[in-house]
Amino acid sequence: MTAQLPGVQPPHAALSADDPREIGGYRLQARLGSGGMGVVYLAHTPGGRPIALKVVRDEFAGDPGFRRRFAQEVASAERIHGLFTAQVVASGVDAPTPWFATAYVPGPSLHQVVQRHGPLPVRTVLLLVAGIAEALQAIHRAGVVHRDLKPANVLIAEDGPRVIDFGIARAADATALTGVGLSIGTAAYMAPEQALGRTVSPATDVFALGALVAYVASGETPFGAGPESAALYRVVHERPDLGRVPHELRDLVAWCLAKRPEERPTTAELMAAVHAHPLVGPRPEFAEGWLPQSISSEVAGRVVRSGPGTAPPVHAQPTLAAEASAATPATSPRSGSGAAPATPSRRAPKRRRRRTLTALVALAIVVMAGGAYAITAPQEANSADGPDPASSPAVYVAGGQSVELTSPDATYEFDLKAGKVVPSNTAAWYLARERSEFVLPEDSDAFVSAGDELSPADCVRGIETEPVTKVAFAEVADERPFCVRSADGRDLVVVRLVEAQSDGGPVTAAFDRYRRA
Fold first, then answer.
1. What pLDDT was estimated at residue 48?
2. In this predicted model, what pLDDT tens digit does every residue of 145-190 receive, in sequence order?
3. Could you give the CA distance from residue 429 to residue 418 in angstroms, rounded to a whole number?
4. CB-neighbour burial class of residue 31 (10 A; exposed 0-12, middle 13-18, buried 19+)
5. CB of 242 within 8 A of CB of 254?
């Protein structure tokens, strides 16, 4: 996939009126993202080091079973000390709203890197193998099995990878904590023993590393896409498809993906294999040039500068979405799954306007300069909804900073008015998502840009000439922008899809909001 590298990384989101200002003695400075299980904030230690402080949502904080699991997971993570991990620096597992803080890693995830830049060079992949293997060695030394190692849980910093998000890690001897209906891990990266519900071990993480390497080296997972059940079947019963993996890496990947745990390499053997490779040598170093220039430039652009008035970049670290399957709302009737909601939807059917201007809202990271845009709006009125405020010349101004959000699955939607992730059927002006496309409100207008940029003026003109009723992820996979206008014409959102997993998993996007002056 061709990279699109803006010259400036998008800023963080300002704290809203609903966000706390201090947690655990740390003063919060910005919202870095949110997921199904919590919100991540930027804070600083008393000495000035940036940290990512992750707060559990209130609805889960009241669940005693969840709190027990959370306390166990944080205790496990606090035992891990490795140069290639994001260290837990503080926690509040007994607080009314549990939280924990990790070192801030100002870099994109491997998943984001591959989606934006395509498969990585062999030498880069080999260095990643060494770094991640060392991280796993530290994790296993603490008696922990990660259980959800995947590209989204490895961040790229200038000096190497960081393995993060131990939100579903368990002590190796604590598998009894896994409850009925609790899905642990991600199907495409699960080892056979994990998929079958058997005892996990350090070899389980090595299998996941093999699947991760296949993905970053080829752009495809070794057991294919499609429904989770199909991926799990292939993991257990079929050989991995390594046809697109460079030949220099196939033997190493196949070794990691052995069906039997005892036939897989140890982390020490993996590091030795990297040292022995002629492209690396006995002293693998994350020196200048270990990353392709386009990726290196993106990583460098995300470094936090703590001077006055400086806006840190969007935090690439996952946002407590890993445990979402433990306590998620019932599937929304918009999701197309056929499952009935747990409670009746509060939304009444909405009448279509005479114009075929149904809406789509986009997910995106896009940097927009503040300021006003003069727009000559259409003269057509909406006969079903009354006069359209957009029927006279309008000026739209930036309504805040870019915000990056993650919907962990189709039971969550994006609240476009509030700029946050909420359970389905919660927001009045929303962007929902299915497995492969966004779902839009009936009474909003939307437009997909033909190019790389989209201003509010372009949005309004596009809505009047080329309105759309749906947006497939594939159509906007290269961060192609699109926009959504509210039913009353007072708000616009410009969006770019950041990443969307092909299996119906997390969807991440960033939003820029504009308000009619």
1. 83
2. 888 899 988 999 889 999 987 655 553 333 334 443 444 567 889 9
3. 9
4. buried
5. yes
Stretch (H or E) spanning 194: helix 192-195
How large is the greatest C-alpha to C-alpha distance in the chain, in angstroms? 73
What per-residue confidence (pLDDT) applies to 338? 36
Report pLDDT for 322: 35
223: its two tokens: 């057991």
The closest alpha carbon to 83, from 16, 160, 171, 188, belongs to 160
Mean pLDDT, the chain, rounded, equals 76
Report residue 302's pLDDT band, with 50, 70 and 90 as the boundaries: low
Query: With 0-12 CB in 10 A as exposed, 13-18 as middle and 19+ as buried, what is 272?
Result: middle
Does residue 452 carry a catalytic annotation?
no
User: Which residues fall within 8 angstroms of residue 218, CB to CB, at 6 or more apart?
Assistant: 119, 242, 244, 245, 246
> Of 37, 54, 36, nearest to 407 (Cα)?
36
Contact (Cβ atoms closer than 8 angstroms) between residue 139 and residue 27: no
Which pTM value belongs to this model?
0.57
Distance CA 422, CA 31 (A): 15
Q: Which of 18, 19, 148, 415 is catalytic?
A: 148
